[in-house]
Every structure is written in structure tokens, then in C-alpha cells.
Write a structure and sequence with these properties.
about 80 residues; mainly beta
Length: about 80
């Protein structure tokens, strides 16, 4: 079941978020970002990433990928690991 944006309380709630225009954490449209798109993917790390990061289990971290697509269409991708300790 998908949570309402204002009720998002953990990183998993953002998985598969796809908004245009983007909203703030309360679900209010960001007025200065018309034409922009934000896409989010959240997943446990792969076995290869687990090994590279020297983690005990793949469930010890998640990879968060945020892609911003401006009106020009040339996307910007950002990735970060979040530990589950």
C-alpha cells in the first residue's frame, strides 16, 4: 500500500517516486520547478556492492538513486548508500 506523501516516514516510501513537478516533504508542489521531474529508486545493495562495502549482509545497506530531469531533458543522477545498522 502506497503511503500519502505527508506520511512518508522512511526511505522505502520514496521507492519508485516519479513526480513532475517535484513536491516538498509535505506534498506541496515546488512552484519554481515546473517542467522538472524527480525519480527515486531504493533497493538493498547487490552482493557485489556488499562485498565492495565490506558488509555482512545485503540488508545492511540500501542504495538510493535520485534522478533529476530538468526541462532541457538532460538528466542528472545522484546515488548514495544508507546503512541499516
Amino acid at each position: 500500500e502506497e503511503a500519502e506523501r505527508a506520511q512518508f516516514d522512511d526511505v522505502d516510501d520514496y521507492h519508485l517516486l516519479n513526480e513532475s513537478p517535484p513536491m516538498d516533504p509535505d506534498g506541496v508542489v515546488r512552484q519554481n520547478y515546473a517542467g522538472y521531474r524527480v525519480e527515486v529508486q531504493v533497493a538493498y545493495v547487490t552482493e557485489a556492492q556488499r562485498t565492495e562495502l565490506v558488509l555482512d549482509e545485503v540488508t545492511d545497506a540500501k542504495l538510493i538513486r535520485v534522478t533529476i530531469v530538468p526541462p532541457t531533458g538532460s538528466s542528472l543522477a545522484f546515488s548514495v548508500y544508507k546503512g541499516n545498522f
